[in-house]
Design a protein that fits this description.
This protein has 426 residues and is mainly alpha-helical. The protein is built from 18 helices and no strands. It has two domains: 336 residues, Na+/H+ antiporter like fold (Up-down Bundle); 64 residues. Helix 2 packs antiparallel against helix 14, helix 4 packs parallel to helix 7 and helix 5 runs parallel beside helix 15. Involved in cellular auxin homeostasis by regulating auxin metabolism. Regulates intracellular auxin accumulation at the endoplasmic reticulum and thus auxin availability for nuclear auxin signaling.
Length: 426
């Protein structure tokens, strides 16, 4: 397959994301004012609770069987390596570049969590449809096999994203709002103290007696409130890691277990688990999947809901971009670090990991499976990060700016690395 054909295949899904994002930006702008801040938040809740779980269940229940899951055992390991290495590199970038504290989780999430779902669902079958691809066989068989790999990747990626990345963004949101509240309290105290000091100055300069009498309750009230506010500040700080040192091991273990269970019960994760159970259990699968399935209407309805996930997420991101370009505090160097991790360091590591696993005998002979494993290292940040930023009201504008630049670069990076991967596998 020629370079230009590969360029078209790899760039089309990226162009689709950018076009829909531009539409979202227009709908959120002053010219249209349809996607207001409140509308985006409400739409995001629907995406989180309905659309994303539907997409996970529909694809996993239909395309993945128990035998497939067993034979593809290395894929969850591969994705785990991506999250581990990407997270470590993101952590190093945060330590070196020192972005605002509440954006550290966003940078780490952008480096570790790739778009393991919808882009693969578009790219992999499209590559199979091109003449001269190195994967052999008929186009329909190659596309069906590629769709199964991509769907399994989406389900596994969703599990990692809605546990590891979800936890990162949740902590970032709590930290951001706690610091915001603390700063507001400090500013309020300073304002009242300066007001009281100003009135005292008037009294000392020989102002009228009526001003001196008015000073007494004015000065006392801020002092009383400042004492209360200063008492509140340590209490506010005690919600964070300061209390952690006073907890015993069992309390920490109980709290950690509760947090993990809470994140596992997120709607997308629950739907992925149910979808896998249905797909891996033949008699359950026969109830939902197939032309003669008695509950086929449920699968069709769920799939219809799931098809709305990608457009809605992209519209929300485009809408947030209108604010992000004006309010974002993320620096170009931090965006460059994310691009460096996602499109240079991780793909090189991916080639080494997949080649080593194949030489050891961990992978099947199918070159398309190895291609999917390699391409997983090269994808732009997961769009679900934007969903989480909107849920916890942290870094929304910065997230949109990160997505703008990483998806612009993805068109070239995916094309170049796809060419390299196919050359290695041919």
């Amino acid at each position: 397959m020629g370079f230009f054909s590969l360029f078209l295949v790899a760039s089309m899904p990226i162009v689709q994301v950018l076009l829909i994002g531009l539409l979202g930006a227009f709908l959120a702008s002053g010219y249209s004012n349809i996607l207001t801040v409140g509308a985006r938040k409400d739409m995001n809740k629907v995406v989180f609770a309905v659309f994303t779980p539907s997409l996970m269940f529909a694809n996993l229940a239909k395309t993945v069987t128990l035998q497939d899951a067993i034979s593809w055992w290395f894929m969850p390991v591969n994705i785990g390596i991506i999250f581990l290495v990407g997270g470590l590199l993101g952590w190093v970038a945060v330590k070196i570049l020192r972005p605002p504290q509440h954006l550290g989780g966003l940078v780490i999430a952008s480096c570790s969590a790739g778009n393991l779902g919808n882009l693969l669902l578009i790219i992999v079958p499209a590559v199979c449809d091109e003449d001269g691809n190195p994967f052999g066989g008929e186009r329909s068989i190659c596309s069906a096999r590629g769709l199964s790999y991509a769907s399994f990747s989406m389900a596994l990626g969703g599990f990692y994203i809605w546990t590891h990345t979800y936890s990162l963004m949740k902590r970032a949101g709590k930290l951001y709002h706690r610091n915001l509240l603390r700063n507001n309290l400090v500013q309020e105290i300073e304002h009242k103290d300066s007001f009281a000091n100003g009135d005292s100055g008037k009294a000392e300069n020989g102002e009228a007696a009526v001003d001196q009498e008015a000073l007494i309750p004015t000065a006392e009230k801020p002092d009383d409130e400042s004492q209360q506010n200063q008492l509140a500040l340590p209490l506010l700080s005690s919600d964070s890691s300061f209390m952690g040192s006073k907890k015993n091991f069992w309390d920490k273990l109980k709290e950690g277990t509760h947090q993990i269970v809470e994140e596992l019960l997120a709607p997308p994760t629950v739907s992925a688990i149910i979808g896998f159970i249905v797909g891996a259990t033949p008699w359950l699968k026969s109830l939902f999947i197939g032309d003669a399935a008695p509950l086929r209407v449920i699968q069709d309805s769920v799939k219809l809901l799931g098809d709305g996930t990608i457009p809605c997420i992209t519209l929300i991101l485009g809408g947030n971009l209108t604010q992000g370009l004006r309010k974002s505090v993320i620096r170009p160097v931090e965006i460059a670090a994310i691009i460096l991790v996602r499109y240079l360091i991780l793909p090189v590591i991916g080639v080494a990991v997949v080649k080593a696993a194949y030489e050891i005998g961990f992978l099947p002979q199918d070159p398309l499976y190895r291609y999917v494993l390699m391409i997983q290292f090269t994808l732009p940040p997961a769009m679900n990060i934007g969903t989480m930023a909107q849920l916890y009201d942290v870094g929304q504008e910065e997230c949109s700016v990160i997505f703008l630049w990483t998806y612009l670069v993805a068109g070239v990076a995916l094309t170049a690395w796809s060419t390299v991967f196919m050359w290695i596998l041919s």
